[in-house]
Amino acid sequence: ETSAKIIDGKSIAKQIRDEITVEISRMKDTVGVVPGLAVILVGDRKDSTTYVRNKKKACESVGINSYEVHLPEDSTEQEVLKHISGFNDDPSVHGILVQLPLSSHMNEQNILNSVCIEKDVDGFHPLNIGRLAMRGREPLFVSCTPKGCIELLHRYGVDIKGRRAVVIGRSNIVGTPAALLLQREDATVSVVHSRTNNPEEITRQADIIIAAVGQANMVKGSWIKPGAVIIDVGINPVEDAKSAKGYRLVGDVCFEEACKIASAITPVPGGVGPMTIAMLLSNTLSSAKRMHNYK
Ligand code: NDP
């Protein structure tokens, strides 16, 4: 019985953050520039508040200045747009992040469109996604979660070129850009979604699986080709009486079964999650470098 190698996202993310810290201090010493990230949070959703707090803490830990605007739930779209416009014009801000989801009375498209693409560190602007989809074009930023997935494959020395990859999920922020990135890396990519017939059979062809569904333990052992590499993006709370909080987090892939069949797999938590934040820091640093023409 084989046992898959565990892809340690937490420690790779730590390594990346250390690299970023060194670069930021070098940039500060040589050209006096400190990268800045602006975060806009609307309302008090518990998960969003936690994500924003973690992003701010991560910024501090590597030497990025963070600027937070926290608006009440009943703010107007105009108010959000006003803050984005202020950050667009502010030279000390190199990245702007609007925490999603926004409340339903706001038009998410208008808001994401208004972030200038040079500061779109989340990579959610349609121009950045469009360029990602086009051959011969380069996006200024790629969204952090899919970028983190590919970075994990690279740092673990996983060959992507010519391999069969299956992405489960097609959201704008994870599944679709993950599929586009794999295709740019010369994988042959299939995308499985909620209307796919026989997703198990398609997934079983994959050398590389990226699961971004939001369904606890959906991908069973029988879905997995022996030796496949699995990147599990899903974060799903399941009841757990033994845990102090009454729940624990699991991925989209049944970890126990997958471990016996795959050659490598990311754990949840401790896999893709920490990489997402590391990529946000990395995008903010690249943005500051680009704006100041600093190599
Ligand atoms: P969405 O809900 O936006 O998208 C889910 C996708 O999964 C959709 O494309 C949907 O298909 C597909 N899907 C749903 N049910 C099934 C099914 N039974 N079979 C096949 N496909 C299905 O989610 P996100 O992309 O935003 O996030 C996905 C997961 O990743 C979540 O658990 C989320 O918490 C986690 N996440 C983790 C991050 C991290 O940093 N680790 C960052 C972002 C998200 P259809 O398009 O047909 O509806």
From TrEMBL:
GO terms for cellular component: cytosol. Keywords: Hydrolase, Multifunctional enzyme, NADP, One-carbon metabolism, Oxidoreductase, Photorespiration. Residues 143-290 form the Tetrahydrofolate dehydrogenase/cyclohydrolase NAD(P)-binding domain. It catalyses: (6R)-5,10-methenyltetrahydrofolate + H2O = (6R)-10-formyltetrahydrofolate + H(+); (6R)-5,10-methylene-5,6,7,8-tetrahydrofolate + NADP(+) = (6R)-5,10-methenyltetrahydrofolate + NADPH. One of its GO terms (biological process) is photorespiration. The keyword Endoplasmic reticulum does not apply. GO terms for molecular function: methenyltetrahydrofolate cyclohydrolase activity; methylenetetrahydrofolate dehydrogenase (NADP+) activity. Pathway: One-carbon metabolism; tetrahydrofolate interconversion. The keyword Amino-acid biosynthesis does not apply. Residues 7-122 form the Tetrahydrofolate dehydrogenase/cyclohydrolase catalytic domain. Homodimer. Catalyzes the oxidation of 5,10-methylenetetrahydrofolate to 5,10-methenyltetrahydrofolate and then the hydrolysis of 5,10-methenyltetrahydrofolate to 10-formyltetrahydrofolate. Belongs to the tetrahydrofolate dehydrogenase/cyclohydrolase family. This is Methenyltetrahydrofolate cyclohydrolase. It comes from Rhododendron griersonianum. The chain holds residues 73 to 367 of 367 of the full protein.
